[in-house]
User: Fold this.
Amino acid sequence: MSVDVEVFVIGAGPAGLTAAYCLTKEMSSVVVIEKDPVYVGGISRTVHYKDFMFDIGGHRFFSKSKEVVDLWREILPDDFIERPRLSRIFYGGRFYSYPLNAFEALRNLGVVRSAACMLSYACAKARPVPESKTFHDWVRNQFGEKLFSIFFKTYTEKVWGMSCDEISADWAAQRIKGLDLGVAVANALKRALRPRRAARKEGAPVVKTLIESFQYPRKGPGMMWEAAARKIVERGGKILMGRELQRLAFDSERRIWRIEVATADGASESYTARHVVSSAPLRELMDKLAPRPISSLHARALRYRDFITVALMVRKGDLFADNWIYIHDPAVKVGRVQNFGSWSPEMVPAGMSCLGLEYFCFEGDALWDAADADLIALAKDEIAHIGLVDAADVVDACVVRQPKAYPVYDDHYRDNVAMIRLDLESSYPTLHLIGRNGMHKYNNQDHAMMTAMLTARNILADERRYDVWDVNEDAEYHEAGASGVQEALRSERLVPQRVKRAVNG
Assistant:
């Protein structure tokens, strides 16, 4: 039976476009649909507002994978710039280095509060919480209650919308591993008292690390994905904007997918395809499958964290050097402030600045449903409270809502995703899940791209040589032996999980 297209890709974010880009090197029969009527790139798009451009979330371009870096360079060979990396924490009217410098933190807190922190730390070491199960307990044991409340509690709860008493200690142990306050302070004192030596021998090269600088497209990450989209189309692929998946049915006898799509103006389109690649949120995809799989009940339990960017245009340039600032202060709702001119000077007009205030929320809550004018007023008040900008210097503003920015990693998500995966892989061998939301798995941009690259190889080889679920922060990929079995060095990033509490009685 003939088909309209060999591969049908759902979503034109980094994962979907990477899959289409790699596939169209070998075949032209690829169609990509994207719900957004204007932008490709998903959460990695660049928003254009008048003469300003800004990123949704901030996306540094670095990766441990040479393949991903090479692909970035292939797609966008002449438009990367190197940018200095600086981010800090704001709390109680002061700024602190990020990652935290323990000696600086104690100095900035002042004598009385520093003494209270050290006493709290001593008490935690003398009387630790036995068998700590929560994020709160774990951090308290490591740093003391005072430092937990200052540098960990507020921001963590802003981002995830969960109490630190509901987040698993396992997540803290992974994210904050290797830090010991006592050792950090002792080392800082030794460095401060040690006689200063020449910074480097004359003529020695200056070595920069990924921590000190990063690569960035000069007009934002959307520049990358707009270029990828153009090249896909030049090779004969299609990218259809303003399209939303309505129904996805598999003809198991003919091994053909029948796909129904709604356009932005309400019309409907139908397609047939041999393979479907989905980067759409897993919960949404499962609702569109027909007949609905048994595991759709597990999909309905998956949750997402959303956020709002309020971009403030400021009639002043060079406000501060930070790319972004984490806001730990509980007096304001904003969680992070992006400084888009520090990402790239080309994203803002000369003599101006653009700050992005990020508010983490759930779609449908009071913050999400607030009027744009109210959100702008809130952002102006809070940026003035922080002391970064006088509200009178804000000359314009723009609000962007980003649904399903982060999958929520509660204590049930692993089991739910495992059941969905088992169901789909046994019933739909030519349905391929990729990317962060497509797999409901923690993926940075480069991880999402790798899942797409490996999926493209599987499709072109007409066999699953690679298990994309093994893609993680530190993995390396190769084919082993004649069987083509993939081996990976697994170091999966742990994520927040709700604590399982014992039920009495």
